[in-house]
């Protein structure tokens, strides 16, 4: 197959994917469209069609956001971070790359994390400390957003899908009428 044919096949695949998404999403309630689009994106990641590095533990955490039961929320952060979020922070520590996040949030950079937490759109603001590198790995930043600001997950997930799916804007901003 020559280069022109392979490009055409990829374009056809993309068009079929978008057409199927449009057909299915017409029958969905608005609140369910992002769930369907997330499933599509995560499935393409699992099949390695979209090259995003992640572990199964990270995906499980993103979907379930588990929390440790009866966490003792340190006093300095108790005023701005709910106990449920602190329990999730403690579970996030079990994932590779986030082992020290509880120490950073609870002691070392508490004020910087509080400032990030209080942002109107924290998904668009760089995280403090070494976590600023997550700007280049938005999937892992989703884990922190899911932990600390679950109210912003819809917007953050839309941004992730838009940037991750080939021609993602076509999916996130398509008119289903």
Helix content: 55-70%
Q: What sort of overall outline do the alpha carbons produce when their principal axes are compared?
A: elongated
Could you tell me the mean pLDDT? Answer: 91
Beta fraction:
under 5%
Please give the largest β-sheet: none
Total count of helical runs of at least 4 residues: 10
The H-and-E topology, N to C, reads as HHHHHHHHHH
Q: Compute the number of structural domains.
A: 1
Distance between the termini: 37 Å
Number of strands: 0
By secondary-structure content and strand pairing, the structural class works out as: mainly alpha
Unreliable segments of 5+ consecutive residues: none
By oligomeric state, this entry counts as single chain
Q: Which value, in Å, is the CA radius of gyration?
A: 19 Å
Structure explained in plain terms:
- This protein is an all-alpha fold.
- Helices cover 61% and strands 0% of the residues.
- It has one domain.
- It is built from ten helices and no strands.
- Helix 2 (30-46) crosses helix 9 and helix 8 (138-148) runs antiparallel to helix 9 (153-164).
SSE map:
Elements: H1 3-26, H2 30-46, H3 56-64, H4 75-78, H5 83-92, H6 101-108, H7 110-117, H8 138-148, H9 153-164, H10 168-172
Helix pairs in contact: 2-9, 5-8, 6-7, 8-9
Give a summary of the structure in a few sentences.
This protein has 177 residues and is mainly α.
List the keywords.
177 residues, 61% helix, mainly alpha, elongated, single chain, 10 helices
